[in-house]
Amino acid sequence: MNRIFSATLAAALLAAPLASRAADTTPREPYGIALEGFAYPYPVHLLPVVNDGEQLAMAYMDVAPQQPNGRTVVLLHGRNFPSSYWAPVIKMLSEAGFRVVVPDQIGFGKSSKPTGELHFDTLARNTIALLDHLKIDKAEIVAHSLGGMLGVRIARAYPDRIAHLVLTAPIGLEDYRLYVPPTPTEKIIESEDKLTAEGYRKQLQTNYAIKLPPDQITPFIDARFNIKGSPDYPRWLRAFVSSGQMIYREPVAHEVALVSEPTLFIMGADDHNAPGRPNAPEALRAKMGQNAELAKAFAAKMPNARAEVIPDTGHLVFLEAPEKYRELVLGFLGR
Fold first, then answer.
1. How many angstroms separate the CA atoms of 265 and 255, rounded?
2. Whole-angstrom distance, CA of residue 266 vs CA of residue 166
3. pLDDT, tens digit, 9 for 90 and up, residues 198-218
C-alpha cells in the first residue's frame, strides 16, 4: 500500500507543472473578481469612472521610462488575458524611452465588473478619460485581440488623440453575425460556468494556436479559474459573457478601412481565431478566421497601413515571436 501511495504521489508531482488535470482537482486559492491575489508586474492605480450611472474603478499601470522620449504608448489587452501579460512589451517600450500606460478595461482584470452591459463606445470613452486624467494629449495605441476592436473604435471616435495604431492579432476583422446565429446571454453563462480548467486550456490552445510551453499558459488558467471561489463570481461571469456579446453585437469590421492614422497589422500566420465559430453552421466555419488574409486586404484599402504576417506564430504574437515583434513595433513607432 505504501508503494502504491508513493507512486501516486510522485505522478501527481510530475504532472503539477502542466497544471492541467491538477487544475481541475486541486483546491484553488480564491482570487477576488478584481484579481485580488494575482500579481501584476508594476504598481496598479485606480481611476474612478461612471458608466451608465454606476460608480466603477478602472485599473491601470503607468510605467515611466528611465530616458523619456516624450511619447506615450497605451496597451489594450484581449478578452481572455489580464493586462499583466503585456509585461515583456512594457519592458521593451520603456527601454526605448516610451511612457507606457496599461489599462484593464472595465469588466476585465483588476477593474470593476459592472452590473450593466459592456459597450465598445463606453470603453473608448473610459480610455480617453484615463488619458485626460494623466494629461496625455496624444498617444500611440498598441492593441491585441479584442483590444484591436477597441483600438479601431478609439481611432475612429478620437482620431486627434492617436498618433499610430498597432493591431496585434486583432479579432473583429469580419462581422461574426454573418456566420453565427445569436445566442441568449443566459445560455452562454450556463455553458461558460460548466467549463473546466483543462477544457479552457484546450480551448486556448485550439482557438489561438498558441506556441508557448504549458507553464506559460497556466497563469491565464489561474486568472480565469481561481476566481470561482469568490462569492462575487456570478457577477464576474456575467461581465465576461457580456464582453463576448459585445464582440458579436458591435462589429468594427465595417470601420477598419476608414481608419486614417498610420496603422500596422501584426498577424500570426497560424492564428485563425474566430469567436463563435463552433456555433456557426458547419458549411460556414471554414470561411471564418482567415485573419492574416483579412488584415492584408484591409491594409490595401487604407490610406496609410500595412500588414506583416509572422510565420509559425499563433494568436499571442508578442509572446511567441518577441524579437520579430520588437523589430516591427519599434520600427513602426519610430517613423
1. 15
2. 7
3. 999 999 988 999 989 999 999
Q: What is the 3-state secondary structure (H, E, C) of 87-121?
A: HHHHHHHHHCCCEEEEECCCCCCCCCCCCCCCCHH
Question: At 23, is the secondary structure helix, strand, or coil?
Answer: helix
Reduce the DSSP state of residue 321 to 3 states and report it. coil
Q: Could you read off the pLDDT of 217-233 as tens digits, one per residue?
A: 999 999 999 999 899 99
Nearest alpha-carbon partner for 56 in 108, 132, 120, 131: 108
**Which among 24, 18, 17, 16 has a CA at the least distance from the CA of 228?**
24
Three-state DSSP state, 306: strand
194 grid coordinates: 460548466
| CA separation, residue 95 to residues 19, 92, 322 (Å) | 33, 5, 15
Residues 144, 150, 155, CA angle at the centre, nearest 5°?
A: 110
CB-CB contact of 275 with 169 (8 Å): no
pTM: 0.91
C-alpha distance from residue 334 to each of 52, 72, 133, 290, 322 (Å): 39, 12, 26, 29, 18
CA–CA gap between residue 230 and residue 285 (Å, rounded): 36
